[in-house]
Amino acid sequence: MPHFPPIVLAIAFAAVVVAVTALARRLPVPTPILQVAAGFLVGLVPGVAIPELEPDVVFFVFLPPILWAAAFFTSFRDFKANRRPITLLAVGLVLATSVAVALVARALFPGMSWAVAIALGAIVSPPDAVAAAAIVSRLPVPHRVVVILEGESLVNDASALILYRSAVTAAVTGYFSWGESVVRFFVDAGVGVLLGVAVSWLVLRLLRYTDDPLAESLLALAAPYVAWLAAESIHVSAVLACVAGGLHLRRHFSTAVAPMSRLQSRQTWDLAVFLLNAMIFLILGVEFRTLMGGVPDAERGRLLLAGGAVAAVTIAVRLVWVPLATFLPRWVSRDVRRRDPMPSWKPVALVSWTSMRGIVSLATALALPRVLADGRPFPFREEILVLTMCVIVVTLVVQGLTLAPLIRAFGFVPERTHHVEARLARLEAARRGAETLEDLAREPWVDAADVAWLRSELRDRARILEHHDGEPEGRRRLRAEMLRAERRMLVRLRNEGAISDDVLRDLEQELDLEAVRAGVGHAR
After folding, report:
1. pTM
2. What domain count does the chain have?
3. Distance CA 269, CA 265 (A)
């Protein structure tokens, strides 16, 4: 049977990504589920030999940019304001889930040691932000729920990986110390954060000396890999290094680069993260097919039932933990009740149900050593791989298919906080621009006609912003039609040879920016 070369497989995977993404926009099925199913089908194609995945390569290729981008586009203000629920989920729930899964695993597999069972718990404990974001981001969800879920995903991988490494070390060497593990946790976390901030500081210094948007975008893309490699080289938390670096870079990015670089950087990140996410779920599908194909028929049913039981435990622990973590701090502390009153049950239920697993769990399971210190095979390694894939698939399918209907049934009221803050910020920015214009109007190099023109433009912008709901719908539609007509005329001029493609691209970008500013950026 012929085998396809790697370049053909890469092109085929890219084609599958595009086809599945286009199909997902027309079906009520979440994109990650379709991508996993597509990967499963790819594994059935004769002649497709998928190379064995190296865990270090999986971690290095996929995690750094995804974590860095997630942190970069996270509001540090909101992250800080919700640090209590984020910590309870990212650290407390990871520990609780690991212990619960360990108890069930020891009951299902007699002879499994505590160290191996805790390692399994640490593998399946952190939910995957990619799967949740792919579903939640398109639906009307309370802003605080999104902040908490994103914040949890930024930290939970670090706590799970630190616990995993301690458990694997205990399983391999037969030695474990709680004191050393706790100290190691804080050292790994602290040094990782400092290292990430240092890499971000260095990148910012380099960005200030460059004047090329493409070079600046590439430099920003390289930053997470530098942070990850630096952290791994000294054995501290590479996850927190990327998270801290992304948060720090975003705080100073607006003053470090030019507007064109900011626009291009956003487009570059969107494309990179989209491709990586799509490849992740395709790989999950392929690996599930590969792993199940290697399980003897007599063992397959038992392992699938055990995998379903472990998946049920991970879901159940979160369903219990989130309400308790929401209620108990307010019951214990009057200050917490005063600062943060008890929320409605609907967002609490949504956070409780959003816990799909993904690529981090798979890569961590694949990273299990094959032998112990004495040369014996690592116990239950194959079973752990199958259990992990079962948890990933069950949570993706069960929760992924029910999450969107659940959100629609809750009927969350659209929040206006973002729009109110944006309107206030635009008014203040326009006011400051007007003050600067008046200050510069007396300079000898300033033309009075230019001042009058810009004054008129600022007055028009202020009139739109001062309207409570922004520009009236009729005027907005007229503006969209006007911009569309201008764009078509530019295309016509290009087609007739009156202007070049370069001129079209530059002028089209100006119209696109105007459309975005006017709130009609989605009109074709």
Report:
1. 0.78
2. 3
3. 6
